[in-house]
Amino acid sequence: MCVDADYLSVAVRWSNHEVAGLCAANDVQQAAVKHALVNSFSLIQGPPGTGKTLTAVRLAALFIRINHSLPAKYRGELDRKPQLLVCGPSNKSVDVIASEFTSQRLYIKPKF
Hints:
By secondary structure, this protein is mainly α.
């Protein structure tokens, strides 16, 4: 695992949070989210209708929150803002993810 300890501590803290505006993740989706947050590479695959896109939206929202929670050393000398790049096999797949962000004001809230 090639993940920095500072990052891991922040990621673990956020791994149990729900993303307001999205339905709650089922157990398999939550396991995929936790795995993706603490590993340097994750592959999420499955048949249509299993929640892959919403899991990607959830991950993107959580990664954004994690990026903003990281210590200043991750911004570098130029004080760069944290960024997230979402890729997919087609423009449509990425458009679906982007539309979830623009159609809802996604934010993170603790899961109690």
